[in-house]
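Quick question, first post here. What does this chain look like in 3D?
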Amino acid sequence: MKIRIGIVGYGNVGKGVVKAVAANSDMELKAIFTRRDPASIKIDDSNVAVLSIDAAESMVGEIDVCLLCGGSATDLPEQGPYFASMFNTVDSFDTHAKIPEYMAKIDAVATKTTAIISTGWDPGLFSMMRCLFEANLPAGMNYTFWGKGFSQGHSDAVRRIEGVKYAAQYTIPIETAVESVRCGENPDLSAREKHLRECFVVAGADANIAEIEATIKSMPHYFADYDTTVNFITAEEFEANHTEMPHGGMVIRSGSTGENNQIMEFSLKLASNPEFTGSVIATYARAAYRMSREGIFGAKTVFDVPLSYLSQKVREQLIRELL
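> Answer (accepted):
Ran it through. Tokens below.
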């Protein structure tokens, strides 16, 4: 029997999840929940229901796992607890500083469901690498660099500012910082010393440009701790140069074992940030489904999921082929 999937939110990540579900032979898409007019969303598969978010309760029992594809700034803080109270869920909540608070809210309502939060690649895969690297090389330091690439969460946060029509935010590693880490110098780097942030914004005709720029640069958890450049451009320039969504990054552990220096590194180079994020979210649907069937309820993270629960392959096949 296939895992019945519901998607909440049909933006860039939601569309990536549709492709990911189609690529997994043990899953089938049952419904898409949207805040838009459901009639405005066209899906090739006539068996997929497109419904208002308000209709979610009517699908309890018809969906095994809901994949929450909204933004972390305003969508998930509301949608996460609402859906986790009724369905097994997976999301990609990515405001790192607020994850403990968000997890507590989910855990309070997920008493009979399994809700895996903050999947994707960071948090998510990169979180796993930081844990693994630290455990294997305890005498050392972790460093995470993002980009150069398009950040979905930060772009979404800028788009929510009054007067902003379109926005793209790029995270750019500072190369001297990366090289210092790779050389084993173990520098003590602040957020500002590791990354630059650059925004390209299309403002409305009557928007206050100075106010938008000030709001961006002072936004906590997103821009306040970084040197940020805000560029105001035309809609035509945005369409021509800022609709692709590449991204990537690396986790580096620099440390020592006795007298020998050791470097561990994991990196991603992504042509499409939302499609890859959608692929990871879909993978964790399998884990949420399996854990719920075992009665493992509540809010969970990537640290709580056995690696084998992510794969379609049975244990014996994993051992034979991958170990």
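The radius of gyration is 21 Å.
The longest strand covers residues 247-257.
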